[in-house]
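Dear Dr. L.,

I hope this message finds you well. Following up on our conversation about the binding site, I have prepared a predicted three-dimensional model of the protein together with farnesyl diphosphate. For your records, I am including the exact sequence and ligand specification that went into the calculation, followed by the structure tokens. Please feel free to forward this to your student if that is useful.
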Amino acid sequence: MDTIKIPKHIAIMMDGNGRWAKKRFMPRTFGHRQGSKTLENICKDTYDLGVEYLTVYAFSTENWSRPKDEVEGLMNLLKEYLNKIVKMSINNNMQVKIIGNVKKLDNEFQSLINNLEKATANCTGLKFQLALNYGGKDEIIRTTKKIALECLNNKIDVSIINEDLFASHLDTTDIPEPDLFIRTGGEKRLSNFLLWEMAYTELYFTDVLWPDFKKDDLGKAIYDFSKRDRRYGNVIE
Ligand code: FPP
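The resulting structure of the complex is given below.
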């Protein structure tokens, strides 16, 4: 029997919601709403398959430039979702962390995020990272500023700055780098997602639009990953 290597950490760019909605003559927000349902299923599926970490891109620093009604729709959906998944995460033993420039989000977001992270802090199942107001370049700049401040305050000396120290100041501190990146919706770019963290990540692109992405599609991506020659990943029979 073939041995399948399961990636320990999968990062997903959930692209194609707008086109999915357009095909149905519906507003883009309808696609995002359907996309959030797909995400709930995929969280369960990734864990069932043995993946330990899942990181998804929910709102980028660039998404603010979308039409005002779409940004408002997404913000409302995200707030609804952060509230809704508290119970679901606890029931599924899922630990949730938000990564990104969260300090720039409004007070309602701050309290929803605090509440969700605290409520799930002791969950020992899937470690789920939701990137909100996230940009890879922005994360690198915020990290650089954190380290510069520590130097200015004489907490650390410039000479000790190395890759490990830098990584430990990123939003993703304590989270292993993704083994596999999946982007749905046909585009073949990283689009500013986890730029530092994905230096060695295997990339997988599919034309499937995110709302249509199912466990089978996830399985195909993992199978494709498994065939590649890598040094990382859990091995199951
Ligand atoms: C890209 O689709 C997706 C996003 C801008 C954000 C991802 C959002 C979701 C999956 C839904 C909300 C998520 C949560 C966690 C509630 P697109 O609009 O770029 O699609 P297009 O490429 O077809 O235009």
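In brief: The chain is about 45% helix and 15% strand.

With kind regards,
A. P.
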